[in-house]
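Here's what a typical entry looks like (Peptide methionine sulfoxide reductase MsrA):
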Amino acid sequence: MKENSKLEKATFAGGCFWCMVKPFDELPGIHGIVSGYTGGNVDHPSYEQVKTGTTGHYEAVEITFDPEVFPYQQLLDLYWPQIDPTDEGGQFFDRGSQYRTAIFYHTEGQRELAQASKQKLEDSRKFSKPIITEILPAPVFYAAEEDHQDFYKKNPEKYKQERIESGRDEFIKENWSKQGS
């Protein structure tokens, strides 16, 4: 790895943040993933506050990455198949505004790539319903409490059960794993 490489941040909301870490974790060029909250109207919110759905925050992940090793476009290509981009009420069995989907861009280049990737998904007609995932400027990001960081590593059985019971894995298999679609 080049010592002078410039790291960037990417922020994605895809429902429960526990389920949004593992797909990006431990890939070349990914230097860290933090689960947290963004987009709300309370400074330094707690999980207990955010889960009420009244703070305006999204559960999200902030990814630190090296764009020379893992370009932003690859992050987008990995993000979309983790979510139901047509669900405005949350994700899978997690309901409420804190579980909405969004791409939060940190640069104009990220905004352009995110918009293009969303347009490509819309044009594909993969889904009969509209793609409602928003593309928004990245606001302040607050790290979640330590027990929410790397949840899939700390609680592998509970994580696996959560993915199955939520319907996320079934949705991904049904909608994103089809070849040629």
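The beta strands are 8-14, 30-38, 58-65, 90-91, 94-95, 101-105, 134-137, 141-143.

More examples are in the samples folder.
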